[in-house]
Each structure stands twice: as C-alpha cells, then as structure tokens.
Amino acid sequence: MDQIFRKDLSHLTWDEVYARQVQRANLVPAWMDALGVGPGSRVLEVGAGPGYVSLVLADRVGAKGIVYAIDRSAEALAHLERRQTERGISQIRPLVADVATLEGNGLRADSALVTMILHHAEDPAGILRNLHRLLPPAARIVVAEFHPEGPCEQGAPRAARLTPAQVRAWCEAAGFQVRDYRRQSPEHYMLVAERAA
Ligand SMILES: C[S@@+](CC[C@H](N)C(=O)[O-])C[C@H]1O[C@@H](n2cnc3c(N)ncnc32)[C@H](O)[C@@H]1O
User: What is the DSSP letter of 72?
Assistant: First the structure.
C-alpha cells in the first residue's frame, strides 16, 4: 500500500499519474455511458491530469466532438497535448485553470466527468457549484471517487477518501440531483447527477 499522499500529487511524476489512470481504464466506459457520450458530444473533463481519460473520451466523441480537458497543472496538460499530437487528433481542448473559479467564456459542454479529482481539490464543493454555472439545464455529471471502505490496495489512502454521502451532499448543495449510485469495484464508486433546470 502506498502511504505517501499529497493532495497536489507532488509525490508522483505525471508519467506515474498516467500509469495509474491506465490501471483504472476498466472504469471509464461506464462513466461515458452514464453521460450518453457519443460521436459529436461535447464533454468537459474536470481535472484531466496527464490525460488518459481525455484520450478515451476523444475516441468516443470523434472528430466532430469536443473534449474540454481542464487542469490547474500546465505540466500535466503538456503531457496530454504531446499525446494528442502523437495521435494526430485535435478534438481535445486543454485549458489550464482552477475549475472552482473558471469563467468558462466560450465553453459549451453537454456534460462533465469529475473523476478521481475531488479528493485532490482544495475546494471540492466550489468545483461542483461552478460546474452548475458552466453546464446547461439537465446536463449530467459523473463523479467517481475511491471508497473509504475499500481495501486501499491502490489509489488514495483511506484518510484522504471521500464518503459517497459527502459527495452526494456537495452535489445536492450545488444544485445537482443524484440519479444513480454504483460501487464499480471494491475500491471505486460513481454517482450520476443531473443539473436542475
Ligand atoms: C488524479 S489526477 C487525474 C484525474 C482524472 N480525472 C482521472 O479520472 O484519472 C487529478 C487532477 O486534478 C487536478 N486538480 C485538482 N484540483 C483542481 C482544480 N481545482 N482545478 C483544476 N484541476 C484540479 C490535479 O492537478 C490533477 O491533475
């Protein structure tokens, strides 16, 4: 078990963060299905990191879709931009910003992924409040996190994990109604929520 954990991920290189994202690859199809992501969709990824999930989203939305990949780390997004260039695609739009305060001028997303980020954030409730402002009525979000009662063999240590009840309360306070909750594995859970009109 990895005992070292820093919220800002400074205990890992971005290549190591990417390798951890790849380890969680089996979770991603259910996230995209819950949002109804398909060709032409415009999806916002909150806290994209070095970008594994953004690249999977890019495959699903295709050349006519858009993936807004937002992260506070320019270095993480540089990894993603390099991988996007290697693949010869252009539907991912990396943007360095704090999602809790992002203005979103010109950003037009139909839905958002908020996966494995809230336990790294300084203001998780603020991120959800700002997302409510950035997304249109009835837009869906998927929030995924590590379960505090999981075995803690991978991912964040138990003390850093967020309970589903806490995440649900932040979603509801921000104006999202929770439509579904699933334990995706012993370590992971996801909530699907819809922005109120
Ligand atoms: C574990 S990483 C990547 C998570 C990715 N969404 C996934 O599912 O694999 C979490 C990322 O969230 C970013 N992050 C944390 N708080 C943020 C904030 N307020 N605004 C933007 N990015 C943030 C970190 O810089 C980091 O790259």
Answer: S
What is the atom index within ligand 1 of the atom nearest the CA of 113?
6
Exposure string over 127-157, b if 16+ CB within 10 A, otherwise e: bbbbbbebbeeebbbbbbbbbbebebeebbe
DSSP string, 7-33: TT-TTS-HHHHHHHHHHTGGGHHHHHH
> What's the rounded mean pLDDT across residues 16-39?
97
Residue 2: pLDDT over 60 = no
Residue at 4 is within a domain: no
For residue 164, being part of any structural domain is answered with: yes
Domain count, the chain: 1
Residue ranges around ligand 1 (CB below 6 Å): 9, 17, 21, 45, 47-49, 53, 70-73, 76, 98-100, 115-117, 120-121, 127
Q: Please, are residues 177 and 148 in contact by the beta-carbon 8 Å criterion?
A: no
CATH number of residue 59's parent domain: 3.40.50.150
Query: pLDDT digits over 98-127, tens only?
Result: 999 999 889 999 999 999 999 999 999 999
41 class by beta-carbon count within 10 Å (0-12 exposed, 13-18 middle, 19+ buried):
buried
Domain residues for the domain of 37 are 14-195
